[in-house]
Amino acid sequence: MIDCGAIRSAVSEVTLVRHPESLSGAVRSVGARVCREAGGTLAITYSIEGDLARLRVPPPRPPRIAHGLWQHTCCECFITLEGRPGYHEFNFAPSGEWAAYAFAKYRNGAPLADEGLSPRIAVRRAAERIELDALISLGRLSAACLRQRLALALSVVVEHEDGVLSYWALAHPAAKPDFHHRDSFVLELEGT
């Protein structure tokens, strides 16, 4: 687990809620713990609790960029600077694979093929819990991300044994799951 004790900024522990149109008998809860290091790292621990035997969780693989991770079990983080239309998206799979995207505005963006962004991912499994740690180097996104206030949208996609996906987020402002929606960016982190 990420040790936020040595981190100067506040730690936010949040609960993600299931989108009303998603079914999820196998998942009891989804949460996250977020902290921002003074050195410019964003540390996130995601936690999924439930009947893991009824979920599809990708097996470990070597860390690498992979796209389409959101089509299976994965954790996501959207990052923006307060008052700006652009944002970044990170996808973290329990396999250790990841993807990053840059958007100039709502859904207008492209993948970032920067291996230097490589978020360090660690996964722990227990009988009824899986935890995924991800460390993001904010300085690789922009110098402003190191100093200014950030707004985050956190989300998790869970694939069930029958292939059905459930969608979990801090907020669901739209009738259909839409993690890019600006009203999803509800977690604010002060600048350092």
Please outline the helices and strands.
Blueprint: E1 11-18, E2 27-36, E3 41-50, E4 55-56, E5 74-81, E6 87-92, E7 98-105, E8 108-111, E9 120-125, E10 129-137, H1 143-147, E11 150-160, E12 165-169, E13 187-189
Antiparallel strand pairs: 1-2, 1-12, 2-3, 3-10, 4-11, 5-6, 5-11, 6-7, 7-8, 9-10, 11-12, 11-13
Describe the structure.
The chain has about 190 residues and is mainly β. It has a single domain (about 5-190), classed as Immunoglobulin-like. Helix content is about 5%, strand content about 45%. It has one helix at about 145, and strands at about 10-20, 25-35, 40-50, 55, 75-80, 85-90, 100-105, 110, 120-125, 130-135, 150-160, 165-170, 185-190. The longest helix has 5 residues, at about 145. It starts with 10 loop residues before the first strand and ends with a strand. About 35% of the residues are buried.
